[in-house]
């Protein structure tokens, strides 16, 4: 079997001052992909050649997403994206981490996102991260958007605002945090060797089951202690289909000499592996002041 070639990967979005949150997503097969399109009439013009991995990635993943939607018509965009991301893989045919074509070194979540999409596994992901309208409104509130700005997004099928949003009066025990957006990946900013952060997530079980228990496996990023509570999620037929958990990221006191360290959280029932990349950002003093 031929070894998987290195990835010609663009970087995913690194943490910004507004939302210190990298957003790993998925990536299809191929490197230095060339697409050919015939312009004008049938064969009357010369082919146009395009060499752009990002442009070609979009129709590849879109086609897989359409396949998932056909197989699971009740799934919305968030569930489909979650299924693609949490079932992706990051190793080549020799079992080694896929290399970045630009550096020749092992790729990271900022290179490859969640990894290579796997359509077959995405059809049966086990658990998915769903995102509701309320989640997105909370996210916008946490970023400081005004009620008027949020009303532009929060529209019903008729095109008119579906409800009036007042971020200052939202019924939360705690103000919404953008880091709690129910995304299938974790991006954490630790500003010092003693810093600590928590993030909340919830998982929805999909597919056929009678009783199943998922246990967490933590691949800890260097310099960080990671705690998941609860460490197991148990689902039974006719019981709740959604379970919440909290992740605590705590610097272990060692000064980091790199800007990023990486790890993952995997929920497994022995059949399904629901993988969530972790990217930890260690800003220097000047960057801390800007965040």
TrEMBL record:
The keyword Signal applies. It comes from the Eukaryota. Residues 10-25 have a biased composition (Low complexity). Keywords: Signal. Residues 180-280 form the Subtilisin-like protease fibronectin type-III domain. It holds the Pfam family Peptidase_S8. SUPFAM superfamilies: Subtilisin-like. Residues 57-93 form the Peptidase S8/S53 domain. The keyword Signal applies. Residues 1-32 are annotated as: Disordered. GO terms for molecular function: serine-type endopeptidase activity. PANTHER family: PROPROTEIN CONVERTASE SUBTILISIN/KEXIN (PTHR10795). Belongs to the peptidase S8 family. This is Uncharacterized protein. The gene is gb03889.
């Amino acid at each position: 079997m031929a070894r998987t070639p290195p990835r010609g990967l663009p970087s995913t979005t690194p943490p910004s001052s507004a939302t210190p949150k990298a957003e790993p997503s998925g990536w299809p097969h191929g490197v230095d992909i060339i697409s050919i399109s015939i312009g004008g009439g049938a064969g009357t013009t010369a082919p146009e050649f395009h060499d752009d991995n990002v442009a070609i990635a979009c129709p590849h993943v879109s086609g897989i997403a359409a396949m998932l939607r056909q197989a699971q018509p009740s799934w919305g965009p968030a569930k489909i994206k979650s299924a693609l991301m949490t079932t992706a893989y990051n190793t080549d045919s020799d079992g080694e981490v896929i290399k970045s074509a630009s550096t020749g070194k092992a790729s990271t979540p900022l290179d490859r996102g969640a990894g290579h999409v796997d359509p077959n596994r995405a059809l049966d992901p086990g658990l998915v991260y769903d995102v509701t309208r309320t989640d997105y409104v909370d996210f916008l509130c946490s970023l400081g958007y005004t009620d008027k700005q949020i009303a532009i997004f929060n529209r019903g099928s008729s095109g008119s605002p579906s409800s009036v949003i007042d971020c200052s009066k939202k019924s939360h025990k705690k103000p919404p945090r953008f880091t709690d957006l129910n995304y299938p990946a974790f991006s954490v900013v630790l500003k010092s060797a003693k810093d600590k952060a928590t993030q909340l997530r919830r998982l929805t079980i999909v597919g056929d089951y009678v009783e199943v228990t998922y246990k967490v496996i933590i691949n800890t990023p260097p310099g960080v202690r990671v705690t998941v509570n609860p460490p197991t999620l148990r689902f039974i037929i006719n019981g709740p289909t959604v379970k919440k958990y909290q992740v605590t990221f705590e610097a272990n006191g060692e000064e980091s000499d790199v800007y990023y360290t990486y790890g993952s959280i995997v929920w497994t029932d022995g059949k399904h592996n629901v993988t969530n990349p972790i990217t930890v950002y260690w800003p220097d003093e000047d960057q801390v002041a800007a965040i």
